[in-house]
Amino acid sequence: MEIMNRDDGHKGKFFTEKDGKILAEMTYVWAGKKFIIDHTEVSEELAGMGIGKKLVHKAVEMAREKSVKILPLCPFAKKVFDKTEEYQDVMFS
After folding, report:
1. Cα–Cα distance for residue pair 3/72, rounded to 1 Å
2. What CATH fold (topology level) applies to the domain 4-90?
3. Residue 45: what pLDDT?
4. For the chain, which terminus, N or C, has the lower number of CB atoms within 10 Å?
């Protein structure tokens, strides 16, 4: 399932959709040299497929490409960061 990104320079989201309907999304807002993940939601249709973790992974890839940090305020994203040692390089502390 393809994870897409929309970003207007102030806020953005990583998401996946089917037939024009968003089935999973993780939203964020920019704050200087970091972005803040504020919400993650996955539809029941995709529950248990690891899509939430894939959304976080895409955010980490973007942070590395742009040399910025991530502040995961969303409880789900925070949990993924806490459990994934290899994401600590982009975590804002």
Report:
1. 19
2. Aminopeptidase (3.40.630)
3. 94
4. C
Domain boundaries, the chain: 4-90
Which segments of the chain does DSSP mark as H helices, in order?
51-66, 75-83
User: Any residues with CB less than 8 A from the CB of 21 and at least 6 apart, and which?
Assistant: none
1 has pLDDT over 90:
no
Give the chain as a DSSP string.
---EEEE-SSEEEEEEEETTEEEEEEEEEEETTEEEEEEEEE-GGGTTSSHHHHHHHHHHHHHHHHT-EEEE-SHHHHHHHHH-GGGGGGB--
Using DSSP's 3-state secondary structure scheme, residue 52 falls into: helix
Query: What is the C-alpha separation between 36 and 69, in angstroms, rounded?
Result: 9
φ/ψ of 35, rounded to 5, equals -125, 150
Distance, CA of 34 to CA of 37 (rounded, Å): 10
